[in-house]
Amino acid sequence: MADFDVIAMGAGHNSLTTCGYLAKAGKKVLLLERHDYAGGGAATQQILTPGYHHDLHSSVHIMIQANPLITNDELDLFKKYGMDYKYSDVPHATIFADQTALMTYKDLDKTCEGMAKISQRDAEAYRRFVELGQSMLPMIMPGMYKPQPPLGALMAMLDSSEEGRVMMDMMQRSSMDIINTWFTHDKIKMHIARAVSENLQLPDELGTGMGTVMFTALMHTYGVAQPWGGSGKLSESMVRAIEATGGEIRYNSEIKRILVSGGKAKGVELVTGEKIMARDAVIGSMHPHKIRQFVDGVSEPVLKRAENASLAAFSLFVAHYDLREPVQFRTAEKDVEKAIMLTLCQHESMADMQRDFDAVKRGELTDMMFSAGNDESKTDPSRVPEGAGMWHSTGFAPFNLLEGGSSRWDEIREAYGEERQKQQGKFVSNLNSDNIIAHKFYTPLDLERNSPNSMVEGDVHGVAPYFYQSVGHRPTPDLGQFKVPGIDSLYLVGPSMPPAGGVVGAGRAAAMVMFEDLGMDFDSTFQTGESKSKSTVKARTQAPDDGAVRLFDENDAELMTVDSIDTTDDELVVRGKTFGTMPLTARLGPGDLRRAAKMALSPAKFMTIVKMLFSKD
């Protein structure tokens, strides 16, 4: 007999998000976590010296800032469960080899003022670039945290308007193509390219260009944040929310298999042999490459497509240091200490940077290493003992080394980490033995070992952010709706799922799918203002105040808002919006119009239409 409505494999922030919504709606949830802490990629732990709180993976929260989970506090994380964000007026900064620095302030004017000292032309271009991105955000962000449309359908819709075609163009280009089109100075190019590459994408990788537009626009619109106390405080607040609503989290509980019977997920089996059954559903936080390992009964074509999902071209090498005192930067630009994202750029030119990106993709360890890092205690003293400091750095590195493969990382971990420390010393004057109390290095292989079911080959974002693995085709067209074809009541979450890896709160979209399948009303439960029932009632029994016409699908989901119907010499032109804000234009020529009239104007249909015209709203 089942003791729980829903059982979740893993307690990463995506599982926590999905279960948080279910628990608040009254479902009894159980999360089974293989570690002795929750959070997965959003976890903060004292891994070295007591009192020093390090973010194990994610440290910067960007994409989640526009999520209604945060903006509307849908799970009461801020109101009841201790969540609080620390924002900075410097989302991103770069220190160059000559110790000059370039700051991206949240204030666009201030950012452009700094860029103008390097290039007036690029400063003006940057303003236009950000404003272009900001004009796209209303078309993108409302749909970001919901189930995503199929890629083909989205492309067809985008291709129907000028604004959509601009987005299509950028989605299929590389970041470098877009950067070279807009900017001329290498420092500005490197500043932008290096930051966008945090998404684990090569600057010249086709099908990643939209990330460049989104990243800059988001920084100047929503800002960039870290939870007070560390990235894991988000996960900890979710744990409290789930437990307060009757949910349960069991640690040191590793799942061996998802139990499937009659084509339906029924529960889970732990590595200990214990079986736990679920009444309604099972949530699997698993990489598409791992489905075969955990789930029986999935068709071979689905499994092969899942196992063919592309991983990022490189991974990360991560270093944590406990320091006696805060770091001291060599640059005279003091605002770098406020930066939530700080790049240490040793490259002298964009060509040099691209050369080393190419080398990392080939599995080489470059002489000039990619580095980013910061002393998070400078803006959050609660992370360390009084008067102390910390250093958290990351850098791009291959998972499979050209010489020795991935297993060689165990041999070279310390030597490679020490060389990285030496190179970072060009930017930080006291990252040395006099100031370092303890350190810990994580190689790409270590990242996979820590999260083997999510970070395959050290890809902390699950799968690569390529065009063909975007929206409803992430990670594959089969799996993009958070379900596994042929297995009822099994739902997928994790960094591989839409809309993207990182801290996004993507579990919200998975929850929406589950609510619908379980006959629950997500919109009314969380008062999103997006309810189908609200839209249906407003459109069909009461004339909308804006005078627009609305078209619905067979499930009463709004497809399009029609703003105008115009004519040309040989066309009927219908203009409106879909997804709430995306411009859409439909055209009917003479033949199409005759066929439409023939379909609609049979005697019986004509009388119904006349009756509707004279009915009260």
How is this structure best described in words?
With 617 residues, the chain is α+β, with helices and mostly antiparallel strands. Among the domains are: 4-85 and 227-309 and 484-522, FAD/NAD(P)-binding domain (3-Layer(bba) Sandwich); 532-613, no CATH class. Helices cover 34% and strands 21% of the residues. It contains 20 helices and 23 strands. The strands form 5 sheets. Strands 1, 2, 9, 10, 11, 12, 18 and 19 form an 8-stranded mixed β-sheet that branches. The protein has a 7-stranded mixed β-sheet with strand order 7-6-14-15-16-13-17, sandwiched between helices. Strands 20-21-22-23 form a 4-stranded antiparallel β-sheet. A hairpin with a 5-residue loop joins strand 20 and strand 21 (558-567). The chain is globular.
Q: Based on Cα principal axes, name the global outline.
A: globular
> Total helix count?
20
Uncertain segments:
531-543
CATH superfamily of the domain at 4-85 and 227-309 and 484-522: FAD/NAD(P)-binding domain
**Gap between N and C termini, in Å?**
51 Å
CATH class of the domain at 4-85 and 227-309 and 484-522: Alpha Beta
The appropriate CATH architecture of the domain at 4-85 and 227-309 and 484-522 is: 3-Layer(bba) Sandwich
